[in-house]
Every structure is written in structure tokens, then in C-alpha cells.
Amino acid sequence: MTEKLIKVSVPTRIRNNFLAGLIICAPIAITLWLTWSIVHWADSWVRPYIPARYDPENYLNFAVPGTGLVIAMIFITLIGFLAKNLIGQSIVRLGESLVNRVPLVRTIYKSVKQIFETVLKEQGTSFKKVGLIEYPSPGLWSMVFISTDAKGEIASKFNAMGQDMVAVFLPPTPVPTAGFLVFVPREKITILDMSPEDGAKLLISGGLVSPEYRQELIAAKGLPKPIPMDSLT
């Protein structure tokens, strides 16, 4: 009986050790692989346009990965600096006016530009808070990313009905990039203290990776109180 238990426990220990090592090694390996792939992708796009006299590989006996990526970052930074000047703004407006005259290209350009402006805008308020709403039925709670107050025609329709609505993004698990845009009454949203990054981790992991909670709030029971009316403005 003892020998049988020993034979069962040894494979179990080996499996547990393997899984523990996989948890440590897999994120490191994937991070290194993604970083290396991005560096090589940037080099493959930029290096062909680098003049030979400025290419460090012409003076060294070994390859220098990342040269294209560094040059691309410098170039993009310079473009951003020039675009803030009056002359640069005029050139950008002229280029956009030319692009807007091409039917298919202008649609793609406007869509891509709007996405980048929404994601990278420093003063934006998109997805800076995480909340809970009762969905898909009362008593069941789903995590949402709070976007902004209802605006434009939608806000006008809701205001006519006497409702103060907030736009939230309801993502699925484990791919939070897809989901639903839902307009929810402000008083029915329960704010959470976790950051959007922690919320994304919780969703991607299917609830297995839970963010740390402040010690002074651990004793609190139940869900946080509904958010105030002016906390999302």
C-alpha cells in the first residue's frame, strides 16, 4: 500500500513541479519572443531605407538588431515635434485634404486615425474606471469598463426620458477586445477600485488572477456602494 502511494505521489510531484516551472518560464519566453519579433519586424521595414554609410552593420562584423526600431522611433518623434509647429500643421492639413479626396482611402484613414486618437489621447477619459452592472439578469453581476457619459443624439433622447445614462463596454472572457457597447443608468453602476489593467487581467484569466485589494478595505463586506452621480464626469 505504501509503495503504491509512493508511485502515485512521485508523478504528481513531477507534474506539479513542471506546471510551476511552466508558469514561470512561459511568460518570460513569450515576452522575449514577442519583443524579438517586433524588433525584427521593425528592422525589416526600416533597414532597406537606411543609407549604407549610416548603417552600423557596414562598419561592424556582426548584425545589430534593433537599429531599424530605434531609427523608426526617432523618426516618429521628429514627425510629432514638427506637427506641433505652424508649418507642420499646415503640411498635415494639406496631406489630409489630399487623402480625403480618395474614396476608399479616406474611409480607412479616418477609421484608423479615430482609433489611435481614442486609444492614445492623453487627456481622454476612456476606460479609466471599472465597474459592475447586473447582467445578464438581476442578481448576476458582470464587469464593465466605464467609457463616458452618453453624448449627442443618444444623450438627447435619454434626457427627454429623464434618464442619466453612461456608456460602458461589456467585454467577454477571455478576449476583452471584443464586446458590447451598453448604455446603463448611472445609479445602476457599481464602481470598483481596481485599475482597467487589473480588470483586463481578471477577465483574460477567467477570474483566476485577482488583483490585490487594499488592506483597509478587506473587512468591508458586500459590493461597493453605487457610484455618486458626479463621479463619472
> How would you state the average pLDDT, rounded?
79
Task: Give the overall silhouette.
Answer: flat
Count of separate DSSP helical elements: 7
Looking across the biggest beta sheet, what order are the strands in? 4-3-2-1-5
Number of beta-strand segments? 5
Beta fraction: 5-15%
- Rg from alpha-carbon coordinates: 26 Å
Q: Helical percent range?
A: 40-55%
Strand-pairing-aware structural class? alpha+beta
Q: First CA to last CA: what distance?
A: 68 Å
- Can you write the helix and strand succession as a string? HHHHEEHEEEHH
Main sheet overview: 5 strands, antiparallel
User: Which parts are unreliable, with pLDDT below 50 for 5 consecutive residues or more?
Assistant: 1-6
Keywords: Membrane, Transmembrane, Transmembrane helix
Pfam family, one: DUF502
Protein name: Transmembrane protein
InterPro entries: COV1-like
